[in-house]
Amino acid sequence: MFNKILIANRGEIACRVIKTARRMGIATVAVYSDADREALHVRMADEAIHIGPAPARESYLLGDRILGAAQTTNAGAIHPGYGFLSENAGFAAACAEQGVVFIGPPTSAIEAMGSKSAAKRIMEEAGVPLVPGYHGDDQDPALLRGAADAMGYPVLLKATAGGGGKGMRQVWSEGEFDEALAAAKRESLASFGDDTMLVEKYLTKPRHVEFQVFCDNHGNGIYLAERDCSVQRRHQKVIEEAPAPGMTEALRTEMGDAAVKAAQAIDYQGAGTVEFLLDEDGSFYFMEMNTRLQVEHPVTEMITGQDLVEWQLLVANGSPLPLAQDQVRINGHAFEARVYAEDPDNDFLPATGTLGFLQPPDESSHVRVDTGVRQGDEISVYYDPMIAKLIVWDESRERALQRLASALAEYRIGGTVTNLDFLYNLATSRPFVEAELDTGFIEKHSELIFHDRHQDLERELPLAALALLLHKQQADGTRSCVDPFSPWQHNNAWRLNEPHAHRLTLHCHGEDHEVLVEQRGLDYIVAAAGRETRLRGELSGDTLHLDAEGHRQRGTLARTHDGYTLYLADGACHFQDVQPDTGEADAAGADAGLSAPMNGTIVALLAEVGASVEADAPLLVMEAMKMEHTIRAPAAGVVKAFYYQPGDLVDGGAELLDFQADEE
Ligand code: MV4
After folding, report:
1. I need a labelling partner for 393 at 20 to 30 A (CA). Which of 61, 285, 576, 635 fits?
2. Which burial class, exposed, middle or buried, applies to 486 when counting CB atoms under 10 A from its CB (0-12, 13-18, 19+)?
3. Domains of the chain, with CATH numbers?
4. Substitution candidate for ligand 1 out of 171, 235, 239, 281 with most atoms within 8 A of CB
């Protein structure tokens, strides 16, 4: 077995491979770019080699640098992970030339599957079922049209040079075929420089069911059940599961045998995935074969109890497969949800930011979190904004789905926008619970999945306001002073014979909301979003215990550099504390602009303590809500003291400096 392997990847998959290698007693070498200098995978590996600047084309995609790192560290093998160079035949060949084992299939297999049309021809010869259609070289429009007429409409025009959904056009009737073909050819030529088309029968409600196959170099080839990956958005998988709902033993055997036949048709070795379209009538058709370990491989590991990276290492080292087909067991059901820093309410735009607060659900035999980031890490703009893969397992699909919903609800991430609410809504939606799966799922059920969070404002705003007030009182309660119990040291708005009234302004859901909180004994009467709510609550650390007229729940209040996130039982509410308009500030005149306009981070101090400054001179810069705010001198005068330093987090309303105006 290899003494040392190099992982030519980053993020969660690099960490995941390192874990298995370590368990097998194999030393590990990581590679990293400038942006990943402090990354988790670098920390986890035994050694690490810098390979270049942040852009992948200048680092992770440079095969020579990676091979150089393997030579430098004397690594016997390279694990490519997925993406990057994992399906790059040239890199696999370069490894072979330099005597470094490429942990993956032979170069010839990667090449064979590299072209969609070549792959289809190979599968057709091997007797693997293809979608009825025409994918020949003769591109005479009349011939293509004849094929479409013969198979019946609707048909799908696919650019041979396309893939991943690009270059596909539906044709619903004979009358529109000619024009559609001409348009599809133009688009394909423009996109791929090639206008070769294939025509297929269009399956209107297919499922994406893929089989995990494994082949060794002793002639053995098996499948380890299947995964249903139908829930996709723009050809990006969102939630995957194993086994596929409704799969029968007979169909599994038929599809599994076809998958192994496909692999053996190209003398496959290692881990591979054969993707099928499964039609409503149970017929299935080869779609494509992936010659790498897939992102979603953990769901297969959870139901078979196998470590597929261990299998890869064993097979790459010439060992036979650990199991024969009849020894593979399927136990229970597993899901994987891909947790991303992206904004579902903004067309899934990748989000940036710092993971100022990161609390994944507790791991157990039921919950697994594959991640490559830690609290405090920056979500890089250079790579896929994946935060983690959340994998769950239980004895049945129903119980596994319950685990998924709970784990998603417990996942605490602050400092960036995530798709957690979107995943929660999807996983708990009735059609998903009832396994009404097909590749159009997300589009078909968007009103359930993208429900407007604004409707939650009424419920969340009072709770957020109370959480903020308790946080301020907790902070004040710790303010250093001679007698912390003196009533004069607490700013809980206590006034003799007057109700304790607090006026707060919270910025959430894109707007400022004024909230009045009146303290009556243990009760807080909160006037917000046009109604009054009677609440009780206490905050200890970041744990909030709330009671809303008998409905008690526990929440977590997280502070990040750009505000707060209140995590509740069924969702999270992000908000900023806008400077409280308490009225005193105006009366103080000179102090009006010297407190933080809202939560933020001190960026820079621009004046010398003790030096005279002109009116309106910039004194301090802070960052809040991704914008910079400059605090300026209210008049000519002198800064006596700054209360914070660059990098400090400040609450909205916090006094930032002591300024002495000349006229005072
Ligand atoms: C199809 C199809 C329906 N009928 N072919 C999408 C990209 C590539 N993997 C093949 N794809 C499809 N081919 C026929 N004859 C529907 C899709 C498809 C799809 C397939 C799998 C997973 C998600 C998908 C999303 C949209 C369309």
Report:
1. 285
2. exposed
3. 4-103 (3.40.50.20), 132-201 (3.30.1490.20), 212-450 (3.30.470.20), 456-479+488-577 (3.30.700.30), 600-661 (2.40.50.100)
4. 235
